[in-house]
Fold this protein.
Amino acid sequence: MKGLVALVTLLLSFGCLADNSQPLPSWQDGASRQAILAFVERVTDPASADHVERSARIAVFDNDGTLWAEQPIYFQLLFVADRVRAQAEDNPAWKTQEPFASVLKGDLAGAFSSSHEAPIQLIRASQTGLDTDAFDQVVRDWMQTARHPTSGKPFTRMIYQPMLELLEYLEDNGFKNFIVSGGGIDFMRPWTESVYGIPPERVVGSRVAKQLEVQNGVVRVVHEGTMEFNDDKEGKPVGISQHIGRRPIAAFGNSDGDLQMLQWTTAGDGARFAMIVRHSDADREWAYDRESDIGRLDKALDIAEEQGWTVVDMKQEWKQIFPE
Amino acid sequence: MKGLVALVTLLLSFGCLADNSQPLPSWQDGASRQAILAFVERVTDPASADHVERSARIAVFDNDGTLWAEQPIYFQLLFVADRVRAQAEDNPAWKTQEPFASVLKGDLAGAFSSSHEAPIQLIRASQTGLDTDAFDQVVRDWMQTARHPTSGKPFTRMIYQPMLELLEYLEDNGFKNFIVSGGGIDFMRPWTESVYGIPPERVVGSRVAKQLEVQNGVVRVVHEGTMEFNDDKEGKPVGISQHIGRRPIAAFGNSDGDLQMLQWTTAGDGARFAMIVRHSDADREWAYDRESDIGRLDKALDIAEEQGWTVVDMKQEWKQIFPE
């Protein structure tokens, strides 16, 4: 028995086994894991000068590239393309009309870059006119059936195991976790609770306008075509203020789109934590940063170094990327 | 001892003593209390056909006239008037400029009705240019010092004891309570957690636009002058959809401004609950309904009767109105 304990201890010390009795078992016991544990200790220890009451332990997470993957293209754009295809028969003009024509030819990159308005036009086509219940069901159905183009896995399995452990660890320590994403709020809410344990009311994202409609005496809330809020870059702190109403004490992102959220979080008084997930693993995931069109990490990486934020090297620090 | 139990039972049966061992002790054991208990039993009993999982037990509450009083004028307007007075010295032009001039003369009704734009102008004057932390502090300071014009009590004591018990009872039964108010979201959030047990992120209200500002390298979120969202009437279901992301199963209001929220809530599948607080007690509170400018209850009262919604007669059904 003593020999077994020694063997397990030895394997654990080399990071060969995930030790589920410790927090964050899929993280190597390196700088990032240690920084997270030290921060949580500081804000939860009642004797600490940096103790934060439970209700103020607000943690915000970007989604694309931080909680789930975002390559070869943001997953919501694949959803939008599938929605265009599904509605093509009812919209014959789309065959020759951009950006729809490129989508129908399978050229997503061409479609989304065909004009400044193209992404909005496509997002609009994916949801305008549907009421909240109907759009919710469309997203649920897609998550059940759609598969990632290179891994062949459902998109809800393209999430990061170490980040799931981090969400759980923070929640166990009295934090409230929120998603703050450039992605569509209504595209995320139908599945974040079952996948991440984050309920719909804790999801902040980009939104289309909605309006109340009464038809045959039935009251519905219906998606309109107007983009009402872009929850990216400068929008993220604003979205947090409007939705959550408190400045977070911890923020987690992976790209320049998260920079202002990390800056606003760390500009508050008391203990603060900012972390960037760096995509450095071309074998198990993807490797990209300063030059990438998707999830570009350039300015935020410079500022992270200046400010001493925690930068996670996925390749070095994550024993496992995706759940089994 | 037996005699004492019998005496207490007797007194309780006449509603002379609040029985704190039972839910909703400040409520007479009448139709409204029974309707609430029956609904909660239906949705929480795992054996019930109408059982609702905990995460979907969303309850929404109007604030003005539902959780706290709203006479002789919405309390936020008194706050706004105090803010105008406090800034008058720095704005000498206000002495002759409406709606400010009327406020400075003490004629609030005149100020708010001086033009269609007057309420927005005054609300704007109360918060534009302040960052989130500064405005939060302004509201906290006002709540500490300001007093209700007729009762002389702090505004945070002008809340309804029976509704506090209802919030607690629902929370004890796995509900998530949210405020959905026509009042300003940033005016409510600084005090709803300590007063109602409802944290900032569960408060939905009317909002001004905000923007990110960087000054001397410090990132702040600052209130702008534009009214971005009016969380009243048709706006309430839209605000619920955008903030909460799920249709509530129970809604509580007191005026025509809550009608659409009650309609949308009850239009969903499964067990639903809609309640209207009717201000019928001129002695202990105020009595007003169809003719009132503040909190008019007219169309919603007709529809409540048609639909069989629960209408609480404050005078008859509440043993106590305000906390001791």
